[in-house]
Amino acid sequence: QAVVDFERLGEHAAAFQGHDVGFCCLGTTRAKSGADGFVRVDRDYVVQAAELARAGGCKHFVLQSSRGANAQSRFLYLRVKGEVENLVQAVGFDHCTILRPAVLLCKRQESRPMEWIAQQFLGAVARVFPTAYSVPVDTVARAMVACVLQPGEGKVTVLENGAIHELGKA
């Protein structure tokens, strides 16, 4: 494990050398970092890490994005997620897998009351409609590993929430 300073990521290029696969789940919230900080973390850091990984020999990059990602969206969150998807694809990996999960079900260290309420509601909905609106983070993690062990055909594979659930069962 290498600890890097994302503000000086280029100084840590050695940490990105010699890996066949790169996994990226980096992200923050607008509430925590402000709009500019959100863009810097969720787009700029991710793209820079992808470029360093590619330069270091990475062949397959796996990116956790979001349901509804769209570079043309009027909503900052979805627009940035769409932009980063496009930018990571342009880096030129042999294969790029993009996962677009719905609401992530997980325990958080920091207090996010509205997210907690949404998770409680969506957790109950998930008992009836398990793949509709949410996905447990451990399912996403299993899907990320499975997509490397069973890569899809073509240069880019995009997995929406239902496919993440299916692949995460493996």
| CATH topology annotation | Rossmann fold
Structural class: alpha/beta
What value does the average pLDDT take? 89
Q: CATH H level: which superfamily?
A: NAD(P)-binding Rossmann-like Domain
Shape: globular
Measure the end-to-end span: 26 Å
Q: Strand-and-helix sequence, N→C?
A: EHEHEEHEHEH
Q: Give the beta-strand count.
A: 6
How much helix is in the residues? 40-55%
Content of β-strand: 15-25%
Overall description:
With 170 residues, the chain is α/β, with parallel strands linked by helices. The chain has a single domain (16-168), classed as Rossmann fold. 46% of the residues lie in helices and 15% in strands. The chain has five helices and six strands; from the N terminus they run βαβαββαβαβα. It has helices at 30-55, 76-90, 113-128, 137-149, 161-168, and strands at residues 21-24, 60-64, 95-100, 103-105, 134-136, 156-160. The chain has a four-stranded parallel sheet with strand order 1-2-3-6, sandwiched between helices. Strands 4-5 form a two-stranded parallel ribbon. Helix 1 packs parallel to helix 2. The longest helix is centred in the N-terminal third of the chain and has 26 residues, at 30-55.
Furnish the topology, listing elements before pairings:
Blueprint: E1 21-24, H1 30-55, E2 60-64, H2 76-90, E3 95-100, E4 103-105, H3 113-128, E5 134-136, H4 137-149, E6 156-160, H5 161-168
Helix pairs in contact: 1-2, 4-5
